[in-house]
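BUG: 3D viewer hangs when loading the predicted structure for this chain

Environment: internal workstation, default settings.
Expected: structure renders.
Actual: progress bar stalls at 90%.

Input used:
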Amino acid sequence: MSSEDEEVSVPQPYNEEDLWDDELEAIAGREKSKALAYSRRLDVHTWSDHPEVNKFVDPIYDKSFKSRKKNIEKKHLKVVLLDLYVAWVQDPKLKISFSRNHTDYDAGTIYNELSISRLTIEVVDILIEAGLVEQAKGFYPHGQGEGRIARIWPSKVLIEMFMEARFSPFDIRSIKDRLTVILRDTDQEANKSKPKTKKTVEIEYELTEETERMSSVLNKYNDLLWHTFIDIPSLEDTKFDVEVDGEAKTFSVGQLDKFTRRIFNRGSFECGGRFWGGWWQRCKKDLRPHIFINNHPTIEVDFSGFHIIMLYAEEKINYWKHFGTDPYELPDLGIFENSNQQRSTTKLLFLMLLNAKSEGEAYNAFRQNSENGTPEKRLTNDQLSKIKAALEEKHPHIRKHFCADVGVRLMNKDAQITEVIIETFCNHNIPVLSVHDSYIVPEGYVDELISTMCIAFEKVMGIPLTGLEQYAMKENKVRLEYLFDALMSWMPYDDVPGQD
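Structure tokens produced before the viewer hung:
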């Protein structure tokens, strides 16, 4: 058969409408998933006794709700409306996620002081029917298999009511004496009769004199934070993205996200216990030097190699006094392009070695915590073993703790030290922001912070901490003379000399 006799497939004209419909549907799916992912969980502790808040809630209740349990239903309504309001003020695009599963509500737990129950679902449904709330029921993010719980947000009608309301976000806060000491475990340990999902859950515990003492410190600290203005004045956009459990999350700088708790792990008050909360812990590292407290510039002090120093202290050795060198500094291993890359890699690996139960677990955790596309992500087990061997040679006194799962115990110790620092500063009405082993204080209080650290370290670890001053200061602290010039002349921060 000649070529002329061959059957030829004639190209059909593009059905451009169908082509773009498919593409637009895919884009719409991604955009919808992204919009709904920008959310936070319903805070069942949001409350206010302000008279204007009650004047706002009462007409909505009287118009749309009819129940014999008026006080209980109105309490649930107030929590939902106030939390929607707080989220809307924080960012109009922020959604509230909440569960529509009745079994997810336990009004009797110590973590639910307002006894918010599954009645929340009914309240939300009534608000939707009244045209005050929009909802996206449980959904699957575009291209992902794991489902998400429902999202809600205020309708245009409710937003107009928010705009006319005669109260402000500063009239709303968590309920008084909200539980601030949290005990967590995996659900398979907390309740062995349930399926083993290994999800972290909050577990009940008996209130003791010690938990009451810790709560008292936190209550005083949270009250000071509430009355403290903490901001990054150089930011034009107050939102920032952070990766949480492999998923991009958006957070905001603001005055409504400062509440702090202590979270203990593995069902034990001897594991973890660090101070968690406050947007400054989640914001990008390069933003923290630009934080202002009550309109004053700040300095962040990072106590370098803190867990290493603590392990030496357990051996009754003052590391800074006896050795006085950077704990992460190693001879050139021939693996990295420069010493800075080697140091940052060494620091991350050291952390993984202290938290892991085996070498393989440490190496896998190292790669998982390294940024995508970086050389660190591609380091082999042999290369990481070479770094580990160099660390063992540098630190023979504490090598026994490598791959011994000591990290959670050390976190408990550094949390005790942080508590002493926070309580001391609170007693002088001076805010200090904790980022675990570093602390942000108003400029001018660095010496007080270092002296308080020395007192706290000796109190918790049993030996003095001396010789650390020259190793404590963070490299990326703000150059104050340029910062003041920037504020006075509105000079872009990109132009500030010495900033990365």
